[in-house]
Specification:
Elements: H1 2-20, E1 22-23, H2 36-50, E2 65-68, E3 74-76, H3 82-87, H4 89-101, E4 108-110, E5 113-120, H5 125-128, E6 142-143, H6 151-168, E7 173-181, E8 187-193, H7 199-211, E9 219-221, E10 224-226, E11 228-236
Parallel strand pairs: 1-5
Antiparallel strand pairs: 2-3, 2-5, 4-5, 6-9, 7-8, 7-11, 9-10
Helix pairs in contact: 6-7
């Protein structure tokens, strides 16, 4: 029994240490791959050509989300939408091949110390194979998601609706709000980080955001709706003020 408890303790300790060494995103102006996205897509193209990878249907696209650990090991974050994998199976398989075989991954760095970090990217096979051009960067070809009245209006509506929540729960300080706009223009995967240690508060925030039930125009790549991560910082006090640097990612 003592050994069993010791193993549980080690598992929990390792989990805590892993989380402490993991960033939710890369710091500004840092890249997950040597040479940035241009270098990543160049090597992806070279690998696919060299390995004689098969072409995919032009309507297939995939957006893997991964962790690059401080040891440069890649861990795939499980996709919560299996239907999306099935619909884009060829693009998904190519994504897995690239994750397995490319080598120049870079951990994040903060004050000279390396950390694991979460990142994601677009794999659209036609643009990595038959249509590839040097200097290609998928981010340059996205029409980003749009709120019906604009992102600034979304921030205002968000602030108006959650003001009382932060006052009621006495939550103060800087947090980051993250959610995704899925291919149908719906809000999903709502998350606050760093985590607020109050389950009721987190549930109420998610409910409040979902009540802003206007459908967004989803992001588009090559005529295909794709999911898009939205993240912005907010500074909360008892008087609640909007952070001036909120932006789309």
């Amino acid at each position: 029994m003592m050994r069993y408890r010791f193993y549980i303790f080690l598992f929990l300790l390792n989990t805590i240490l892993f989380k402490a060494q993991l960033l939710d995103e890369y710091p500004k102006n840092q890249d997950f791959y040597e040479g940035g996205l241009v270098g990543f897509y160049q090597e992806a193209h070279d690998y696919l050509v060299k390995s004689n990878a098969k072409e995919c249907n032009k309507n297939e696209i995939y957006q893997p989300r991964i962790i690059v650990t401080k040891e440069k090991v890649i861990k795939l974050i499980q996709d919560s939408d299996p239907e999306n994998i099935s619909k884009n199976k060829c693009a998904y398989d190519l994504s897995m091949e690239l994750i397995k075989n490319l080598e120049k991954w870079k951990p994040a760095e903060v004050k000279g110390t390396q950390f694991g970090a979460i990142t994601e990217f677009i794999i659209y096979p036609p643009d990595l194979m038959a249509n590839y051009k040097p200097g290609y960067n998928a981010l340059n070809f996205i029409n980003y998601a749009k709120y019906p009245k604009g992102f600034k209006e979304f921030q205002k509506e968000f602030n108006t609706n959650v003001r009382t929540l932060f006052r009621d729960y006495q939550i103060q300080g800087a947090i980051n709000l993250e959610f995704y706009i899925n291919q149908k223009g719906q809000i999903s995967n709502i998350r606050i980080y760093p985590p607020v240690d109050n389950k009721a508060f987190n549930v109420d925030v998610a409910r409040t955001i979902k009540r802003l039930n206007k459908t967004w125009m989803p992001a588009i790549y090559s005529g295909i709706p794709i999911k898009q991560r939205i993240a912005f910082p907010v500074q909360f006090t008892t008087t609640f003020t909007e952070h001036p640097t909120g932006e789309e990612n």
